[in-house]
Prior knowledge:
The chain is mainly β. It has helices at residues 27-32, 160-163, 168-175; strands at 7-9, 14-16, 19-21, 42-49, 53-59, 66-72, 74-81, 92-98, 104-107, 111-117, 121-128, 137-139, 188-190. A six-stranded mixed β-sheet has the order 12-5-10-7-8-13, with no helix packed on it. The chain has a five-stranded antiparallel β-sheet with strand order 1-9-6-11-4, with no helix packed on it.
Amino acid sequence: xxxPGVLLFLxxxxxxxxxxxxxxxxxxxxxxxxxxxxLFLQDxxxxxxxxxxxxxxxxxxxxxxxxxxxxxxxxxxxxxDARPGSPSFGQQMSVTLDDITFAHLxxxxxxxxxxxxxxxxxxxxxxxxREHDPAEDLSVRYDDPDLGIRWPLPVEAISRRDLEAxxxxxxxxxxxxxxxxxxxxxxxxxxxxxxxx
Length: 197
């Protein structure tokens, strides 16, 4: 199962005795799938050691969309729908991003994002469509009991900011369009592999 609006792009790397070559971004492919590549303003990269968890992070206000890929190593990538009024609000999906398939994950606005490094060194690259405004940062604890995310490895490292993140219940209450929206226990699902290429 996938979350509405999430896309998984699967490039076709060319391998030979020198190594490999792969395209990491293609404006035509992005446009063909409804994205507006001219809106992406910032490229960022993180490096994490095995067992590190980063997230769950999102953006308030208009939100932000991003393209995420793993340039080195592998990560277990998790998305949680935090869009108020979304039929999949509270649901989650996960996918492995690595330097073998070079899959790119398009994360639309309103989705919380986090990952765990699965290899000794994991480099994750982000292409983001908005400038960073710390006042709009959202975060939910990686080990929130209502989310029940199953990280594949023991958590070896996490930032103080992520340890101090709010609960899913607090974010859901704050995001509720009306006071009658129930808190839904998210379901855990695996990303579909029939995503666009």
